[in-house]
Amino acid sequence: MDKAIAVEMRHITKRFGSVAANNDVSLTIRRHEILALLGENGSGKTTLMNMLSGIYFPDEGEILVNGKPVVIASPRDAFNLGIGMIHQHFKLVDVLTAAENIILGLEGRKDLKAATARIAEICNTYGFEVDPTQKIYDMSVSQKQMVEIVKVLYRGADILILDEPTAVLTPQETEKLFAVLRNMREDGKAIVIITHKMHEVEALSDRVAVLRQGAYIGEMMTKDTNAQEMTNMMVGHAVALNIVRPEPKDPSPRLEIKNLSVRSDDGILKLDDVSFTVNSGEIFGIAGIAGSGQKELLEAISGLQPIEKGDIIFHNPKKDKPVTFFHKSMKRVRELAKEGMFHDKQGKPVSFDGMSMGEIRKRVESGDVLFREDEIMDLRNKTPLEIRSLGIHLSFVPEDRLGMGLVGNMDMTDNMMLRSYRKGPQGFLDRKRPRDLAEQIIRELEVVTPGTSTPVRKLSGGNVQKVLVGREIAYTPKVLMAAYPVRGLDINSSYTIYNLLNKQKENGVAVIYVGEDLDVLLELADRILVLCGGKVSGIVPGRGADKRKIGMMMTHMGGQTDAE
Amino acid sequence: MFDFLSFLPRAVMQGIPLMYGSTGETLTEKSGNLNLGIPGIMYVGAISGVIGAFFYEASLASPADFRAFPAVLISLLCALLGSLLMGLLYCFLTVTLRANQNVTGLAMTTFGVGFGNFFGGSLIKLSGNSMPYLALSATSSAFRAYIPAADNWGWFGKLFCSYGFLAYAAIIIALVSSYVLNRTRAGLHLRAVGESPNTADAAGISVTKHKYVATCVGSMVAGLGGLYYVMDYSSGIWSNNAFGDRGWLAIALVIFTIWRPNVGVLSSILFGGLYILHMYIPTGMNLAVKELYKMIPYVVTIIVLVITSMRRKRENQPPASLGLPYFREER
Fold first, then answer.
1. 0.80 exceeded by pTM
2. Taking CB atoms and an 8 Å limit, are B195 and A95 in contact across chains?
3. Nearest alpha-carbon partner for A470 in A508, A403, A413, A388
4. Which residues on neighbouring strands pair with residue B209, listed in sequence order?
5. Which residues of chain A does B203 touch, with a Cβ-Cβ cutoff of 8 Å?
6. Going by C-beta distance under 8 Å and a sequence separation of 6 or more, which residues neighbour residue A89?
């Protein structure tokens, strides 16, 4: 324990409104050491570090740098104390070169030659590869990160904080980064990496500190601990929430995902050979640390994300149900008739050969055209509109409510119309039905709003979510996908959402629930799929599942540690 | 035979106001402000200079008391002050109050033209001129003065030495602007503000200060273009609305030069030439053909826009945050 203390944070508390993001946290950062700050999403890791880098100011507590109490009120103060933070979202100007970005904001004459020399020196010391004349827009994510690190070092930082530095890197790039960080440690710098990836903690850090729900849980030397212990500290004990969980009623396969792989724009494999089946009448939970491919999975199913390989098979439970024009276009009905998909109540095959559109319409509306069997369709690489025109009721409650789900500046009626604007007489909008729907949602879900004509961005988070979920449920979905539907909601609103989802489940809807709170998943979901780095780490029944085991599965494939 | 020796000097003189306008607008746009008020600001610059010169000339006991230096200085300062105030107003609205830049700019153009016409009309009335224009020939001749010996230097003198000092100043200002933007730290910081105000802010660069300074300096440069137009190009004759659509042409020129003031030096002369080409090409009595010729600068601008957009080279794109107000991210 003879390593010099670089930073001491004592009894730090930071509140946002009534929520304490950090509560009485004390942390010590030492030189010649890499400290891993471990915790789940929303555990307050980034907030704590942002108080060191001058972005937030603590409500209570004190910070000592090199033994002296300091006030860090701005990023500039942090620079002057030698603290540099590399954020998840890089702060770089695309059209400028690496060197120009590195010297941005510094005083004095612009001398690119001298700057280039200094950059080369820093690169040599720590084993970076940065071309000072390369433009940022020509760089890979990993190169941009290197520029960010050099930028911080150029300003003379000797206390470095990296916020989830490997989230966007390939394994090879990660290795390169780790090598650089190790070199910096040898040079006597104090380094903090914020992460929730267990293997990085094990591979890189000397010491690990764990946060959970804004509170400091404990710290230990990495070599003295193991993955199981760290995971337990990270997820904590199971908490009883008493969420109702009815038994699924006659489940049958509704959505089959087969060997699905998805690559991001940067070419990183986000989903790797994912296969599972979701049944009707169940809530299918998806657990995983943030960025394990949850977003890509839901977007691939709903047709927003191109698929590299694999199939998404949808089973439409239509056997012996009458055909309607409510969700099927005339074109689609004719196609299906050609395929021999229809029969009448006596079981005789139905053919529309030689019939005019009017006659077909009449025949279908008589209710005597039934599906012979369930429809089975592949949704692979279909656009949302194509999926909809196939008559598939897929509802998606995205994570980004006011970005993807609703239009903040439009009122409730207009937002309802985003689902129905294609209906009604050609060229004119039917405003009455959406308004009725909006009023119905306000009534039934108890949305607190001055009226249907108030822009939805003025509503509170819980009410926005009710509007979105209400609209998606009104579409009578067969599959309902919800990504973090209770994020940012208070307890009462959360339970309203759980009840809504349970009601859908009882109606035979296949509900896919992506959550970050394991306690909720354990009590709400019938089965839980655990993702780890874009792969399926395992599928466990929700009843009687062990929270710690799921925690291990989230951080290690199949929940196995290397030691075992 | 096409008369180059009389065409080129006219093209240069036609191009100088555009050069001022586009240099000013480029400086402004580099800070992320899309100032569509430039036509109005140039107009205000012109009328402010005219007001200064008018009252200077009116205060003289007799025309023999006229001195070139105070006349030039007074109208120059008035033009700078008028356009500076317009720039400050634009900044206050768009940077401090975060009003929509397009709406603010268009309103300022309408305002500037109305302002100019109102005071222009008043001055004409004060001067007692029965014709709808105002002549400031004494001040104008001070603005148009050039080395007398140039007349003896044949084509060289006519092409290079026959202009008033504001023409040379325009070229110097454009080249200095280019140097500042590309070679100095202030220019680097300004470009960072226009490209990514978030990044600039995090690096400790004051976004508000840079936007204010760049926009106000840009407005003052553009205002000089208006002054040059009335004092030099029009020989000190002010008549309402004579300035025409030159302000818009200056904004088109910014796109044409892909945000480079040094490119603007030759481009604005080219535009000036295109603008008056119809007067030098025999088109007979057919006015419709003349109108078609007047369209050329705009057609060329559209072609440049199409080409630069198609090539998608990042350096040739407008500043990334152009037209957007800046809010500091807060939780």
1. no
2. yes
3. A413
4. none
5. 91, 104-105
6. none
A496 min Cα distance to partner chain B (Å)? 26
Q: Is the dihedral of CA B64, B68, B74, B75 positive or negative?
A: positive
Q: What is the largest CA-CA distance in chain B?
A: 71
Q: Helices marked H in A446-517 — which ranges?
A: 461-474, 491-506
Nearest by CB to A95, which of B202, B205, B315? B315
pLDDT at A286: 95
Contact A96 B320 (CB under 8 A): no
Burial pattern A481-519, b for ≥16 Cβ within 10 A else e, equals bbbbbbbebeeebbbbbbebbbebbebbbbbbbbbbbbb
Mean pLDDT of A225-237: 83
* Distance of alpha carbon A279 from alpha carbon A282, whole angstroms: 6
Percent of chain A with pLDDT over 70: 97
Say which CATH class B4-152+164-316 falls into.
Answer: mainly alpha
Write out chain A residues lying below 8 Å of B191, CB-based. Answer: 93, 95-96
- At A87, is the pLDDT very low, low, confident or very high (cuts 50, 70, 90)? confident
**What are the two backbone dihedrals, phi and then psi, of residue A359, each rounded to the nearest 5 degrees?**
-65, -40
Across the interface, whether the CB atoms of A93 and B183 are under 8 A apart is answered no
The pLDDT tens digits of the residues spanning B238-278 come to 999 888 889 999 998 998 898 999 999 999 999 999 888 88
Residue A396 CB: number of other CB atoms within 10 A? 22
Under DSSP, the state recorded for A253 is E
**Sign, Cα dihedral of B264, B265, B270, B276:** positive
Total Cβ atoms within 10 A of residue B217 = 20
Residue B17's closest CA among B258, B213, B271? B271
Nearest to A93 among B184, B195, B331 (CB): B195
Q: With contact defined as beta carbons under 8 Å apart, do B161 and B8 qualify?
A: no
Tell whether the model's pLDDT for residue A342 goes beyond 70: yes
Does A93 contact chain B (CB < 8 Å)? yes
Give the Cα separation of A350 and B277 in Å (integer).
Answer: 75
Contact with chain A for residue B195, Cβ under 8 A: yes
Q: What is the pLDDT of residues B120-156, one digit of tens each?
A: 999 999 988 888 899 999 999 999 998 888 888 888 8
Å from B190 to nearest chain A CA? 10
What pLDDT score does A492 carry? Answer: 77
DSSP notation for B54-121:
HHHHHH-SSGGG--HHHHHHHHHHHHHHHHHHHHHHHHIIIIIS---HHHHHHHHHHHHHHHHHHHHH
Rounded distance, CA A469 to CA B181, Å? 51
Domains and CATH numbers, chain A: 5-235 (3.40.50.300), 248-317+380-393+477-493+507-564 (3.40.50.300), 319-373 (no CATH)
- Per residue in A382-407, pLDDT tens? 888 888 877 788 899 988 888 888 99
- Cβ contacts of A75 on chain B, cutoff 8 Å: 202, 204
Interface contact A106, partner B, CB < 8 A:
yes
| Residue of B153, B327, B81, B121 lying closest to B241 (CA atoms) | B121
Whether pLDDT at A192 is above 90: yes
Q: How far is the CA of B295 from the CAs of A276, A327, A377, B276, B301, in angstroms? A: 64, 53, 56, 11, 10
pLDDT value for A564: 38
Yes or no: say if B57 and B261 are a contact pair by the CB < 8 Å rule.
no
Residue ranges of domains in chain B: 4-152+164-316
Q: What is the distance of C-alpha A373 from the center of its chain?
A: 37
Tokens describing residue A387:
């999926």
Looking at residue A185, its amino acid is R
The residues pairing with A258 across neighbouring beta strands, listed in sequence order, are A311
